[in-house]
């Protein structure tokens, strides 16, 4: 195992882990299993497969956080977020979507680094089976509590949760008393925090802990202590008292030989040919010292791939690689849920007045103790005594420095206190009051801390309705979710919280997002739900993806609905069960979960596709792929280094138009087109219609260059090069053009004998998984009834084929029919249009370079106008008024 690096706050720390077996064109690293992510699914998978003797590589995009390395100062906190584009490699990864906000973790240990330690089992009767509803909004669990119970035991044995042991913690006592007053069921849930130096010993704070037999992934000198009751669980435990995954599963996995790699960010997934099986992964290694520049793509092959990148990360990977994994279920992205998370606050709680006095301050001290110490359970309608959808309400503490923020936020009170003390000191000095001791005055200026000492947050979670839909939008993750369908659920949770605040005689304060009909979740769930068949789910009850044997989802994305309770333990148990199934199946030499006959066959490439040398050549990728179109422009691998390299059998005219010489004048312009695309069809009209109905957009921006304008004009095929990108969410977002051909006007035979021309486009693309595609399009220039010059020159009929298909031989007739019209290898089709504003911009992009730029532009204009005259001007016909577009 290479060095993991260290550091504090969001700083990158020392160099990321070495990768000594990086791929080259001659040799690609091969292992039994690659695990993506180090959270409650990935860490479990790494340990269990390594224990079974398999070669395992775990890839975590974030850095390691040994005890003492978490950010605390304002300077450190300002850099403690994840945004590699901005040079940030910190702990918190914040997302915003329609209707919800999300906060997750980036670091070795995944969500365990910032979760609140609670390890509750999913309630037995909450494993419901509801009738399917198109688009989600229902739960259908393909496994039961009994199926998971042995694996709950295994996870608890590693994580060692215990109930909160202290009996004098103010917020804990207040919650327990209030629950009794309201008739609510309350417990101290098991939390993964170490309070004592050994099992059964009395709890004591800040006591050194021995390392386990498998050591620590952070090194032999790692120091952990028992809980200091500082309320810092959600910002990283510097004491090491939290039993985060790096201290147990990951340390044990490393001791069993698992290769744990940090700063490794997986970008692409593609199945290897069926005869060998397995998967090809494409990834980058973050290099913080480089300051956010493009990163070199790397490749690794594995027999099994286990996705544990978290609900956001795993769904983003699957959606982004849909082009390479075309058999993924249509359920991908459905049944998203925030696990019913709701955050509220109790402020200024008071004790009852005694003997006619004013109410006193009820001490809650939210910053004392771990974040969560109690859990109120409200039953579900599936329980014997419930009505509606069940939920939990838990006390939610916070770090001590938040107390200062709470007090100083009361600006009016703070200013009033300070002004009063300053006035008194001024009077004393002015009138020589003879006072030397001003301690009481300074104490008065600071205040009594009444508000912070009498306040505590509340966190609710439960069975909201899982009807969110995850998609890509311009290459970035998007979620369509609203509170509307879960209004009744959230209303019940909020009412219970309000009742608790009322019993404590405190002010009930909503999260400010509530008034915008939004919530914030730290427990995103779903998107790749487990189920019985591909019609309702992405993967089976063991997390194996339908149609892709050996590809597993082992994190919260596989949950078919909200867990209800804190989901961490259920995810870990699910991963334990999956790994036991994999190992058992391997031992019995039989297939894992899905019959081999259910595996998709290798996707056929279009006729004439070539094996280009760029398949394994590394690309230069953006530091942060989640930004989609807004990310740094990526650079494709050069398919060929020079023209002589093209002279190999079967390349069929791969040559591009000759580069301009110093004596030649080149002309270029940039064109942007937008439209709709649909996979699985070969007819562009049908693709446009279906794509528009399903909001499947496609666009491109191309720079067309005629390297030698005189040669371009003289050649009847008018060949030019095309550079730029195609943006289509089905293929993962923005795909740079590896090679592009353009023909301005090519003679075409029309059915009516009138002159016709075609503008031809051919673009070689490659999706994030490395699968090659060819975009082929044409504009049909043909004079028909009505004023059709505008639609003819601005409408592109496009198809996309699998594989890189070169143009026809130089002496062959023009390939005016898109290659994908020949069915085999077809991926989809659609129509793109030039919008009027884009056309106006296009006119401003014409440039000429060389000895005669003005003459070059004139030559291009003559050619363009002359060809249009040949089609539309030679046989003028009466044009009706108003102009009618061509039907």
From TrEMBL:
Domain FAD-dependent oxidoreductase 2 FAD-binding, residue spans: 32-64
Domain Glucose-methanol-choline oxidoreductase C-terminal: 519-575
SUPFAM superfamilies, per database record: FAD/NAD(P)-binding domain
Gene Ontology MF term list: cholesterol oxidase activity
EC number: 1.1.3.6, 5.3.3.1
Pfam families for the chain: FAD_binding_2, GMC_oxred_C
Keywords: Cholesterol metabolism, FAD, Flavoprotein, Isomerase, Lipid metabolism, Oxidoreductase, Steroid metabolism, Sterol metabolism
Region (Disordered): 1-20
This protein's name: Cholesterol oxidase
